[in-house]
From TrEMBL:
<dbReference type="InterPro" id="IPR020841">
    <property type="entry name" value="PKS_Beta-ketoAc_synthase_dom"/>
</dbReference>
<dbReference type="InterPro" id="IPR016039">
    <property type="entry name" value="Thiolase-like"/>
</dbReference>
<dbReference type="Pfam" id="PF00109">
    <property type="entry name" value="ketoacyl-synt"/>
</dbReference>
<dbReference type="GO" id="GO:0005739">
    <property type="term" value="C:mitochondrion"/>
</dbReference>
<keyword id="KW-0444">Lipid biosynthesis</keyword>
<keyword id="KW-0276">Fatty acid metabolism</keyword>
<protein>
    <recommendedName>
        <fullName>beta-ketoacyl-[acyl-carrier-protein] synthase I</fullName>
        <ecNumber>2.3.1.41</ecNumber>
    </recommendedName>
</protein>
<dbReference type="InterPro" id="IPR014031">
    <property type="entry name" value="Ketoacyl_synth_C"/>
</dbReference>
<keyword id="KW-0443">Lipid metabolism</keyword>
<dbReference type="InterPro" id="IPR000794">
    <property type="entry name" value="Beta-ketoacyl_synthase"/>
</dbReference>
<feature type="domain" description="Ketosynthase family 3 (KS3)">
    <location>
        <begin position="56"/>
        <end position="466"/>
    </location>
</feature>
<dbReference type="InterPro" id="IPR018201">
    <property type="entry name" value="Ketoacyl_synth_AS"/>
</dbReference>
<dbReference type="GO" id="GO:0006633">
    <property type="term" value="P:fatty acid biosynthetic process"/>
</dbReference>
<keyword id="KW-0275">Fatty acid biosynthesis</keyword>
<dbReference type="Pfam" id="PF02801">
    <property type="entry name" value="Ketoacyl-synt_C"/>
</dbReference>
<comment type="similarity">
    <text>Belongs to the thiolase-like superfamily. Beta-ketoacyl-ACP synthases family.</text>
</comment>
<dbReference type="GO" id="GO:0004315">
    <property type="term" value="F:3-oxoacyl-[acyl-carrier-protein] synthase activity"/>
</dbReference>
């Protein structure tokens, strides 16, 4: 008993709160392609549930935080995207010379100084460190100082940040220790490997007592978290929500697992050219790592504290292909249905969507299926521009949706959309005129759509626009 109490005291000591660092609703009809009717004919039922209460609480984005292979601040990250810089390179974290894939969007340098206490920083899995750092950065970006933090109603502030794989490194290390003896297993292996502990620790640090949990839907995770966070605000259960995703799986077991799935590009001799969405020479996706976190805020609350509003969150939707563990539905029905539902739930007309940050991972099947779904909904819009952030940073798994949402919001803010690098020979099944070229392009974004899809057939689409009173 004494040893148990001692272990608990040590756990409590190390798990003390971390050091704190710092009415747009379009009302036109929103019906898409006829493919929707095939999937259990949901259109009529969804239409009947269309939101009609125009006085509902509006949700805006007031903070953005990123940890990515192209920088750890939103402006630096987006400027690098606009310049077409690739963050994909040879893996340096471990010896992968025997692997068929030896490249990734690996974060080469990262510091937790001022963001996480040194003791915890040494013990946490990197996915958790990235998550907490991005969350703190989002608060700083939103102008949430310690003084403002102390004045917030903590019961109306929450955190929903997910991960697809969680603390793989911490868990793997525990397995290796177990080969010697169970007595060698780190007592923190379970809490620091579980996905929910990231938002839990962030809430402990901030004292935020509102909704707090994680969602794990593979690579669609971030969008699910963002949508759920917004719904908590709309329902009046929260005023501020930190939301997004985080993953760090560029370790032997992570790389080996995806290699075994035969999902990764093997263009090891030219890493910066490996991720090439919609290009006829694409041969698989490139792993990435990092975190993206948005601070969503109720509009009146944001106005009252004179926050800088980056964009308005209009809404979104989720669906399931119900088809295959890793392959998209051959007719793209689940994706098209998800987009249609997102438009209807948001009250947005398809004619107003002129920018899509696509999921497009650089896989032979996925890129084209998503493209066809987009065309079924927006093919008649001559202004439509489509790009994929993954061409430069690879696939950040659970973090992809939030990082790409931030890229989408930056496009709204700056009037520039980033290029699709490596799109040298467009697939014969796509119209290259719809896709952004090899250079950044000027675009007055009316409404932007950001897609994220995950293994298991999880689909998610979210919509943003410039905030207008």
């Amino acid at each position: 008993m004494a040893s148990c109490m001692s272990a608990r005291c040590e756990s409590d000591r190390l798990l003390k709160p971390l050091t704190v660092a710092t009415n747009r609703r379009l009302t036109k009809g929103a019906r898409c392609g006829k493919v929707m009717a095939i999937a259990v004919q949901p259109a009529k039922q969804v239409e009947e549930k269309r939101r009609t209460d125009m006085k509902q609480r509006r949700v805006v984005v007031t903070g953005m935080g990123v940890v990515t292979p192209l920088g750890h601040e939103p402006d630096l990250f987006y400027n690098n995207l606009l310049e077409g810089i690739s963050g994909i390179s040879e893996i340096e974290n471990f010896d992968c010379s025997s692997y068929s894939t030896r490249i990734a969007g690996e974060i080469k340098s990262f510091s937790t100084d001022g963001l996480v206490s040194p003791k915890l920083s040494k013990k946490m899995d990197k996915f958790m460190l990235y998550m907490i750092a991005a969350g703190k950065k989002a608060l700083a970006n939103a102008g949430i100082t310690e003084e403002i933090l102390s004045e917030l109603d903590k019961t109306k502030c929450g955190v929903i940040i997910g991960s697809s794989l969680g603390g793989m490194k911490v868990f793997n290390d525990a397995i290796e220790a177990l080969r010697v003896s169970y007595k060698k297993v780190n007592p923190f292996c379970i809490p620091f490997a579980t996905i929910n502990m990231g938002p839990a620790l962030l809430a402990m640090d901030l004292g935020w007592m509102g909704p707090n949990y994680s969602i794990s839907t593979a690579c669609a995770t971030s969008n699910y978290c963002i949508l759920n966070a917004a719904n908590h605000i709309i329902r009046g259960e929260a005023d501020l929500m930190l939301c997004g995703g985080s993953d760090s799986a560029i370790i032997p077991i992570g790389l080996g697992g995806f290699v075994a799935c035969r999902a990764l590009s093997q263009r090891n001799d030219d890493p910066s050219k490996a991720s090439r969405p919609w290009d006829s020479d694409r041969d698989g996706f490139v792993m990435g790592e990092g975190s993206g976190v948005l601070l969503l805020e109720e509009l009146e609350h944001a106005k009252q504290r004179r926050a800088n509003i980056h964009a308005e969150f209009l809404g979104g939707s989720v669906t399931c292909d119900a088809y295959h563990m890793t392959e998209p539905h051959p007719e793209g029905m689940g994706v098209a249905l998800c987009i249609e539902k997102a438009l209807i739930e948001s009250g947005v007309s398809r004619e107003d969507v002129n920018y899509v940050n696509a999921h497009a991972t650089s896989t032979p099947a996925g890129d084209v299926k998503e493209y066809h779904a987009l065309m079924s909904c927006f093919g008649q819009n001559p202004e439509l521009r489509v790009n994929s952030t993954k061409s430069m940073i690879g696939h950040l798994l659970a973090a992809a949706g939030a990082v790409e949402a931030i890229a989408t919001i930056q496009a709204i803010r700056t009037g520039w959309v980033h290029p699709n690098i490596n799109l040298e020979n467009p697939d014969k099944n796509v119209d290259a005129n719809v896709l952004v070229g090899s250079k950044k392009e000027r675009l007055d974004v009316k409404v932007a759509l950001s897609n994220s899809f995950g293994f298991g057939g999880h689909n998610s689409s979210i919509l943003f626009a410039r905030y207008e009173q």
